[in-house]
Amino acid sequence: MTSTTMPVELLLRNLKCRPSMFFLDGSFAQYISFLSGFGVSSAAAGEPFLDGFAEWISANTENGRNLTWPTLVLRSIWPEWNGSASDWGELDSIADEHAVRALFGLLAAYKGVDPGVLGLANDRA
User: Fold this and answer.
1) What is the pTM of this model?
2) How many CB atoms lie within 10 A of CB 73?
3) Radius of gyration for the alpha carbons in the chain, expressed in angstroms and rounded
């Protein structure tokens, strides 16, 4: 780890618990936008953050391999989900909160982070 690298556990905890620290409102749509950009920039820096995430979700949730990781996150909650990217911003507050919790639950499992650190210990993502 270099002096400019934030440990994954700390990054995920800060994202989940302090979204305003990253100028986010804590919505699923904003997390998707942020993480998509972060994934691209981290890959360009040689430390890919999301490489293999879609394949991992697909294998662990038995959903389509041709879907994007945000869609796979939503299908892990709602298997019938067939919405587009524009629909992510249209989730009601309860559904949005559920989607955010599922997203962080899946990210924690993928990255090997204890879900309790993210306040998800009693959740099922």
Assistant:
1) 0.83
2) 29
3) 14
